[in-house]
Amino acid sequence: MATQQKVVVVTGASQGIGSEIVKAFRKLDYRVVATARSIQPTDDPNIAAVQGDIADPQTAHRVVAEALNRFGRIDTLVNNAGVFVAKPFTQYTAEDYASVMGVNVAGFFHITQLAVAEMEKQGSGHVVSITTSLVDHAIQGVPSVLASLTKGGINAATKSLAIEYAKKGIRANAVSPGIIKSPMHAPETHEALDALHPMGHMGEMRDIVDAVLFLDAAPFVTGEILHVDGGQSAGH
Question: pTM score > 0.85 for this model?
Answer without folding.
Answer: yes
